[in-house]
Specification:
Elements lengths: L6 E7 L3 E6 H9 L10 H10 L6 E4 L3 H11 L4 H16 L6 E4 L3 H11 L11
Parallel strand pairs: 3-4
Antiparallel strand pairs: 1-2
Length: 130
């Protein structure tokens, strides 16, 4: 897909895993006037900016470096080596936050989600829970 230009963006993340977003489904949604959200890393955002400069770019930031570390350790899904690799990636990404149109601090999930919906120009739908 990379060789044929079928990916809107792609990257090797944390120095070891390849990820990408197929171009076709995203373009189909945009052509239909549907607001489309991509959850991508810094490398992908830079690629999308190059091909779609009209897009809005939002950086989701942790409230602090200490909180980022606490969340990563608290997940318990990565060993020490992988945590260090992810934190090294996070340092690079956080240093590039100024490249984005908006920075949303993820200090409260509902508030951050509401802010994202607002940035996207959407009307939030009520959440019904138990």
């Amino acid at each position: 897909m990379v060789a044929h230009g079928d990916l809107l963006e792609w990257a090797v993340v944390h120095g070891r895993n390849s990820y990408g977003t197929p171009r076709g489904p995203v373009q189909d949604k945009l052509d239909a006037g549907v607001a489309t959200l991509l959850e991508i890393d810094l490398q992908g955002a830079r690629q999308v900016r190059a091909s779609m400069p009209e897009a809005r770019f939002v950086f989701l930031a942790p409230p602090s470096w200490e909180e980022l570390e606490r969340r990563l350790v608290g997940r318990g899904t990565e060993g020490p080596e992988e945590r260090e690799r992810r934190l090294a990636t996070a340092k690079v990404e956080m240093a590039a936050a100024s490249e984005f149109d908006h920075v949303i601090v993820n200090d409260d999930v509902q508030r951050a989600a509401d802010e994202l919906v607002s940035v996207m120009g959407l009307t939030p739908h009520p959440v019904v829970g138990r």
